[in-house]
Amino acid sequence: QVQLVESGGGVVQPGGSLRLSCSASINIFNIYDMNWYRQVPEKQREWVAGSTRAGSATYADFAKGRFAISRDTGKNMLYLQMSRLTPEDTAVYYCNGETSTDSYWGQGTQVTVTS
Q1: Strand 77-82, strand 10-12: pairing
Q2: Would the CA dihedral through 55, 22, 99, 1 be positive or negative?
Q3: How many other CB atoms sit within 10 Å of the CB of residue 58?
Q4: How many Å apart are CA 102 and CA 7, to the nearest integer?
Q5: What is the mean pLDDT of residues 24-30?
Q6: pLDDT by residue (tens digit) across 59-86?
Q7: Residue 28 banded pLDDT, cuts 50, 70, 90
Q8: Strand, helix or coil at 36?
Q9: Secondary structure (3-state) at 37
Q10: What angle do CA 74, 66, 83 make, to 5 degrees?
Q11: Residue 87 — left, alpha, or beta (φ > 0 → left; ψ -120 to 50 → alpha)?
C-alpha cells in the first residue's frame, strides 16, 4: 500500500512563495507518474503539474512560469515550488501517484494566499 503525505502548506502574502513536499512510503517514482492537484470548495479538483516516470515535467497553463515540480528519488520525495502566488492559488493541494491501473492520493495541504 502506497502512502503519500503532503506538507509545506500555509498562509502566504500575494507575490510570495511556498514549497510543498510529498513524502511517499515506498519508492514509487520509477513506477508511478506523479502529479500535484488542487481543489477549492465546491469546485472540481484540478491538475496543477505532473512529473512522469521518465522525469518529464508538465504544467497547467496557470502554473507555467510560476510553479516547478521536482522529485528526489533517493528520498522518496516530490516537491512543488510555487512562486508569485495570487489569492486564486488558494486551495488544498494534493499529491497523486498513478499508473494505468492504480491511483494514490495524499490527504492534502492547505495553501492560503491572502494579504
Answers
A1: unpaired
A2: positive
A3: 14
A4: 23
A5: 84
A6: 999 999 999 999 998 899 999 999 999 9
A7: confident
A8: strand
A9: strand
A10: 80
A11: alpha
All three cell numbers of 56, joined, read: 518529464
- How does residue 39 score in pLDDT terms, banded at 50, 70 and 90? very high
Distance CA 95, CA 4 (A): 7
- Say how many C-beta atoms besides its own lie within 10 A of residue 86's C-beta: 12
Identify whether the C-beta of residue 108 lies closer than 8 Å to the C-beta of residue 101.
no
Query: Do residues 82 and 20 touch, judged by C-beta distance below 8 A?
Result: yes
Name which residue leads in pLDDT, 30 or 101.
Answer: 101
Q: Can you say how many angstroms the Cα of residue 94 is from the centroid of all Cα atoms in its chain?
A: 6
Closest CA to 34 of 48, 18, 17, 45: 48
Nearest to 48 by CA among 3, 89, 100, 105: 89
